[in-house]
Amino acid sequence: MRAVSSEIFAPGLLDGQAALVTGGGTGLGRAAAAELIACGAQVVLAGRRAEVLEATAARLGPAATTATGDIRVDDDAERIVATVLERHGRLDLLVNNAGGQYFVPAEAIATRGWQAVMRLNVGGTTRMAELAVERAMRPAGRGTIVNVTLSPHHGLAGMTHSSAARAAVESLTRAWAERWAGDGIAVIAVAAGHFQTDALDKYPAPVRESVARMVPLQRLGQPREHAWLVALLASELGRSLSGSVVTLDGARDNWCGPWPPPAITDDGGDVPVEERRPAATR
Ligand SMILES: CCCCC/C=C/C(=O)SCCNC(=O)CCNC(=O)[C@H](O)C(C)(C)COP(=O)(O)OP(=O)(O)OC[C@H]1O[C@@H](n2cnc3c(N)ncnc32)[C@H](O)[C@@H]1OP(=O)(O)O
Ligand SMILES: NC(=O)C1=CN([C@@H]2O[C@H](COP(=O)(O)OP(=O)(O)OC[C@H]3O[C@@H](n4cnc5c(N)ncnc54)[C@H](OP(=O)(O)O)[C@@H]3O)[C@@H](O)[C@H]2O)C=CC1
């Protein structure tokens, strides 16, 4: 996946820029990092698993380096941003891509589950944005933050914790765009639909198998398409889009129709629930 040049953008679009991509070791984050590098940026990939980040950096080449840490832990978040500044002396673009949830009926979400999802998607995203602004973008009088959300525009009946969290991020995007406009900082959200990444493997099979069929575009989004949008938002155009939520969903959003969804309900009327990850990976 070593990037040479962008398939769609002019060479040097992001020359000289330094970007931080959270969740940059996998899926959409990895593809965004590859495209940003292809456009000329230096990219720091952040995430919790060093080995995953190192493997991706090796694939992307010398413009990619890594910073390991958990964005929910304040010391880690501070260290990640400090690493970017030590390495590059600047931070032009934060791609707040790390996030997630699990598939579960609303009534089965435990308090700890709500907290885990809110803490990652709202808390981690907020802390990374604040640190990027305080430590790098406000002093520089310039910067761009791209918040990646799972589009909640129709409500996410199978992931209500994430529905609330992602709607919060969209609202924060607007508020931050207003609050930081005077500092020269643009804030934009990408409301993504269904994308073909390895992360989809964790969802129950009937859920996974039904999603692509239900996208009017008749296919899942490709990570490089999402990455092109991130690069576009990192360009000068992103500045005029500050405060916007750009939807990229093949006309499907992440939810449609009744609960329980007939396509995934079993003979007993139950909806499949996502399995817990093995303890070692938690
Ligand atoms: C096909 C349909 C969707 C298509 C669109 C795709 C959208 C995507 O977003 S794909 C990307 C998905 N990637 C991820 O979700 C990765 C990140 N996710 C996570 O790390 C976890 O899901 C997390 C958000 C729950 C955070 O994990 P962590 O903080 O490590 O939380 P714990 O595993 O310790 O769990 C805490 C708490 O949460 C409840 N819980 C977690 N998982 C489940 C589960 N599968 N089923 C039921 N409950 C779960 C539970 O209450 C846990 O507390 P304890 O039981 O006391 O441990
Ligand atoms: N694939 C899809 O269809 C869609 C995905 N999205 C969203 O796009 C983003 C990327 O998704 P995708 O690439 O598919 O999924 P992944 O699960 O591959 O991406 C999540 C990334 O975030 C990192 N991460 C998770 N928790 C933390 C944490 N606490 N601190 C630091 N990093 C963390 C993970 O690395 P590590 O575990 O090593 O920390 C991983 O690299 C997510 O926010 C997802 O919800 C939105 C719409 C659709």
Automatic annotation (TrEMBL):
Domain of life: Bacteria
UniProt function note: Participates in chain elongation of fatty acids. Catalyzes the reduction of trans-2-enoyl-CoAs of varying chain lengths from 6:1 to 16:1, having maximum activity with 10:1 CoA. Has no 2,4-dienoyl-CoA reductase activity.
Region of interest: Disordered: 259-282
Primary location class: other
Compositionally biased residues, Basic and acidic residues: 273-282
Ranges annotated as spanning the membrane: none
Pathway info: Lipid metabolism
PANTHER family: PEROXISOMAL TRANS-2-ENOYL-COA REDUCTASE
Protein name (database record): Peroxisomal trans-2-enoyl-CoA reductase
InterPro entries, alphabetized: NAD(P)-bd_dom_sf, Peroxisomal_t2-enoyl-CoA_red, SDR_fam
Location within or outside the cell: Peroxisome
Assigned EC number: 1.3.1.38
Catalytic activity: (2E)-hexenoyl-CoA + NADPH + H(+) = hexanoyl-CoA + NADP(+); (2E)-dodecenoyl-CoA + NADPH + H(+) = dodecanoyl-CoA + NADP(+); a (2E)-enoyl-CoA + NADPH + H(+) = a 2,3-saturated acyl-CoA + NADP(+); (2E)-tetradecenoyl-CoA + NADPH + H(+) = tetradecanoyl-CoA + NADP(+)
Summary of subunit composition and partner proteins: Interacts with PEX5, probably required to target it into peroxisomes.
Pfam family, any one: adh_short_C2
UniProt keyword list: Fatty acid biosynthesis, Fatty acid metabolism, Lipid biosynthesis, Lipid metabolism, NADP, Oxidoreductase, Peroxisome, Phosphoprotein
First-tier enzyme category under EC: oxidoreductase
Protein's organism: Conexibacter stalactiti
